[in-house]
């Protein structure tokens, strides 16, 4: 695996997050990269009773002999609407950088110029800017400043994070209101700054979520609520079930 | 496909249920067999807001671009607890027949003798007799007499259905109370009498359910309730979601 | 279910394909509609060792206790590349009709005008015209004329099929070569002419494929080849497996 | 999450493996526990072209727009046959311990007595002893001594690992040949010694495998082989595909 001797070179010497990075990127991350990467996975792991967590619990209720089925059902909701922001933000930022001229050390004002053009373009084409806004955190997503701090501490505050920060500064000029940079979006920026392939960013969000779903299944095992959820929904509909 | 010319021998000449039987059994069913088989699929197709239907709707809510993911999530709940009765009943009946001596035309009293021994054995080993009882239909599952009638009309009232009927007559002697023969169980008996492989009976229940889930997804598309389900559950838990 | 008494109104009286149409469309199909619909399902059910069939067989090999998992794995390949043509064609045709002026009984020449404009537009935007071409059938997909005949016989040769036929006539003028109308595309046109929701067309392809996958799993059970497939692939790669 | 402030208490301070342990077990692991746990995840992450990896790659080939579907398809093969050993071994060991009298510090000879009885019982009931034997490593699975060493170094060489080692010593007396203790089995023993719930051991194997599958998908993206696999299989079968 990875050109290494699994037993002697990897086991006990490589963390699990580090291995996941290595398997996808094809190169071993530095300790700094590992810290940022694991912070992203932690940030994305669990978000309470999301639709995907409920789907996993109900599938576990129906087929408790197949943990793999419940986990798969939970991951299948990892699509455009609830888990796509990370990759969408990474792609938006990478696309903007690809068509702009920039250097890592240019001043904020120059980043703002690029950001302003990108937000205006999106607006003109009626596209959303991914990573802006959050249904609960109306002012600030607490994950955002923490991930910026970690990336700075580790010397990994790169162009995607810089551009995303600039979007946070300039978007009110275009959109007419101030939205927070959400955590899923900043995770996408941070992963892109780690040089990970944009097409696989959703994959990391799914890996993180896999841990979260296992947590839900373990909790469902200890303290089941799936049957209550089922009955609550069933009672409130016009359907007459023919069979439980 | 099936040694036939798909376009000229099958399209427009073979029904979809007929084809499904043919693909699995490796032989074309007679019209009588097709009628019983399709009655079973219809009986198993949809049962309101089952956990699997809810899982499918929530997955569709999260990833509307992937109908295949929502359908798969719904089918993954087709395990031991909510969709296993059909196969379990077929297996129980087939196993009992394999270890008993019987003829198709023996009188009910002889079937009762076999059934009584089988129910007593199950009781002694603390195993459930699959196909007995229903959470809603406490007296009679309306599907049961209808499927018996159809099988009789078509000359397909075979040993599995006979044995299952005998179980319906004798189990109160052993269990001390009278339970209805449920529809999922009688479907298993009918499929086994059609000579279909026992190991694939759950597969037919899943095929039937696939149509039911598509019905749910179409309804979710016209008249979405997934978001309400999500919010209702989310509100009633102690979790604080970090992200929608 | 469907405002009907499942046991008395549906079982034994409604075919399985008919029921699937009814569940999705919210209305009972006529016998003519049912015949076209089932011809489509038959046309789409099985296509040999597609990637999805192989994925289902390998999953069954790995987890034979979970038929639902193998079926789900097979359906998850039902995405844009191998199973998307049906819906893509339906959407292309419906979109063209929505932005054109037409009557059911106008002459072929008028359909050709609409078709020519649509193919030119697609070409100009470098989009593929879905439903054109087939990897095996270079001259004609045998399913295509058969489905046209069935639709005509049943009085269901509507605007989507007419427009698709016109595309078959005019596209060489734009593309510079003659491609056959493939069966998956004509299925999309026929389903759209049945008034079924475009967003659910992939769902019908998946339902058809579910029957095909069950056929593969039954065959894998009788005559397993999954292990051979696995070993054949494994032998031809540079990987050293650490564990089977 | 976990009664902690996600942003301030967890991000950047907790590794991803540590978080996964915490979410499932409901308690934070010690650094020693984390090291053993991550060594297990690393040991189980990737095993070359397993059936599950092939299923994931073929699903990605068919539906490249849905990474979640490809990942789910790969996980669905995580059933009894190829990924079940970890949980099976943990359950076998835990069951034996539950019905035996033992202390952590008793001499090897006493562990051998318990192990001998357990292997004899399994043999008498014609059950396999999970964790014995490996298709490639006929003498020794290199992961086994490494994980024993790590567990010893961390003071986590507990009763499940002791009993498993004893099985390694005594089974030739009963089975008449010497089989290696495989890595998947020793992982199950190590997880059980960490106090993790036996019912969730397959879940950890799935989490590890999720990282391995993402590695396969990233490689498939860089250097695709799915189409070659498909064509190789397709060419070697009697099927005539109707459609690619």
From TrEMBL, chains A, B, C, D:
One Gene Ontology cellular component annotation held by this UniProt entry: cytosol
Keyword Lipid biosynthesis: no
Keyword Transferase assigned: yes
Enzyme class label: transferase
Any one Gene Ontology BP term: carbohydrate metabolic process
Pathway: Carbohydrate metabolism; tricarboxylic acid cycle
One Pfam entry name: Citrate_synt
Any coiled-coil regions, as ranges: none
Keywords associated with the record: Lyase, Transferase
PANTHER family hit by this protein: CITRATE SYNTHASE, CITRATE SYNTHASE, PEROXISOMAL
Family statement drawn from the similarity comment of this UniProt entry: Belongs to the citrate synthase family.
Protein name: citrate synthase (unknown stereospecificity)
Native species: Acrocarpospora pleiomorpha
Gene behind the chain: gltA
């Amino acid at each position: 695996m990875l050109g290494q001797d699994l037993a002697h070179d990897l086991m006990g010497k490589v963390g699990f997050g580090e291995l996941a990075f290595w398997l996808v990127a094809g190169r071993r991350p530095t300790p700094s990269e590992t810290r940022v990467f694991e912070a992203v996975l932690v940030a994305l792991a669990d978000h309470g009773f999301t639709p995907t967590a409920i789907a996993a619990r109900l599938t576990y209720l129906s087929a408790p002999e197949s943990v793999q089925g419940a986990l798969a059902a939970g991951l299948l909701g990892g699509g455009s609407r609830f888990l796509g922001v990370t990759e969408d933000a990474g792609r938006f930022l990478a696309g903007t950088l690809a068509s702009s001229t920039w250097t890592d050390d240019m001043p904020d004002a120059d980043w703002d110029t690029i950001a302003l053009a990108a937000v205006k373009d999106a607006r003109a084409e009626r596209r959303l800017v991914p990573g802006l806004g959050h249904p609960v955190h109306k002012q600030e997503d607490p994950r955002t400043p923490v991930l910026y701090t970690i990336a700075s501490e580790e010397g990994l505050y790169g162009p995607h994070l810089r551009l995303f920060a600039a979007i946070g500064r300039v978007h009110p000029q275009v959109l007419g209101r101030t939205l927070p940079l959400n955590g899923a979006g900043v995770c996408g920026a941070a992963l892109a700054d780690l040089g990970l392939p944009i097409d696989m960013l959703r994959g990391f969000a799914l890996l993180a979520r896999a841990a979260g779903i296992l947590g839900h299944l373990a909790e469902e095992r200890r303290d089941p609520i799936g049957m209550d959820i089922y009955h609550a929904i069933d009672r409130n509909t016009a359907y007459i079930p023919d069979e439980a």
